[in-house]
Amino acid sequence: MDEEATQGAAYAAALITSETRHAKLLHATGVRVENPETYIDASIVRRPRLSFDLSAEYYQHLHDDDRAYQENNWLISEEGQIVKLSRGRSIAEIGCGNGQFTKLVADKIKKVYAFDWARSPSLTDLPENVRFIQGDIRKTEIPNVDVLCSADVLEHFPPDDLPPLIAKFSAAAKVQHHVIACYDDGHSHLTVMPPSAWLALFWRFSSSSAIHKVECRRNNPKQIICSITASS
After folding, report:
1. Cystine design at 200: which of 21, 23, 221, 226 (Cβ 3.0–4.6 Å)?
2. How far apart (Å, rounded) are the C-alpha atoms in residues 124 and 16?
3. Is the pTM of this model over 0.90?
């Protein structure tokens, strides 16, 4: 590993340590994402917009017409980690989008459940071991699986929905792996929190939760993302 890569790895490790320490503070002081009265700092949880316009029809439009939704799939880079965690048995992918990750792991995992409340035009010719389930995940039954995963999904829910949703995820799978955008995308992110606040939220349901990674998307320091792994 060259010097620049070594420095980068050291910086990433230090950032994870810093965010984890802050998460301990949030957890100890009883911060609740759904209750603004518990926030120790107004910037801990930001609500950029209300959710009344963000319907299944809204996301269907994005899948049909938005190039970024048709091309990007932020779970692909997590393939190795998720396959390892699942031991090749079963996963539930929440917010499968264009299905690129779904199809990628289908030949490495025995059973794949792919959920989304809109159906991308790209979700065709799915392998036999993949079951696509369309609907609002807050109201949709999730079968028990080895790993439940998502990428750029949780921030699309309002703060009030997050605790019961993560509780539901934890009941369906002993192991979680989520990539979360910690910035406002300008149109559909309903909860914006730093990695520390996301980790403190997951600790409410799994004390073994940990930040797996923190990095800048597109090398943009204003677009921080984190990945959190949890086991019940």
Report:
1. 23
2. 38
3. yes
